Amino acid sequence: MSDSSLKDDHAKAFVEYLMTLRERDRGALAALRHSLAFEPGAYPKAFPYVERFAGAATHERDARRLALYAVAGLFARHPETAAQTFAAAFGQLARKRKAGSEKEYSTSIENRFVALLGADAENIFDYLRQAISLLAADDIGLNYVQLLADLSQWMNPNAYTDRLRQRWARDFYRAAQAEVETQAKPDTANAS
C-alpha cells in the first residue's frame, strides 16, 4: 500500500469520525466549532477529538496536523458533505448567487475566491473560515476528505501549491459556469 493511499484512508477515517460526532456528540461539535476562533491546533478543548488522528511522530506545526484541526473546525461549522470539491462547491455558490440574468455568476463570490487563491500557508485558514460560512448559509456541501488532502499541502510553507491553486480555479470556474453552458446548448431531443 502506498503512502498516499494510507493518507487517503486516514483522511476518510477522520471525516467518518467527524460525521459520527455530528450524530452523537453535539458538545464535541460545539468545541470544534469554537476552535475556529483560534489558530488551527491552538484550542485545547479540540485536542481530544483531533490528536488521536494527528499521530505521535508529527510536530505541532506539521501541515497535516494543522489541516486536521482546520477541517475539524470547518466541518463543525458546516457538517454538510458532498462529492464535490471545496472549489466546485464555491463555484456552485457563485452560480446560485448570480446578481441578475445578464450575469453568469456572482462576481463578489468570484472576488472572494480569487483572494483565497492568493492566500499562503499562514492565512488560508482565515479565508476558508469565511468561505465555509457562506457555503453553510446556502446549504452547499463539499468533500472534506479532499479538503483535508488539499490543506495538508497548502498549509505546508515548503510545498509547491501552484498546481493545487490551478485545480481549484478549474473546479470553481467549471461549477460557476455549468448552468450557463447547459442553458446555451440546444435541446437536441426536441429538434426533430
UniProtKB/TrEMBL annotation:
It holds the Pfam family CRISPR_Cse2. InterPro entries: CRISPR-assoc_prot_Cse2, Cse2_sf. This is CRISPR system Cascade subunit CasB. It comes from Lampropedia hyalina DSM 16112.
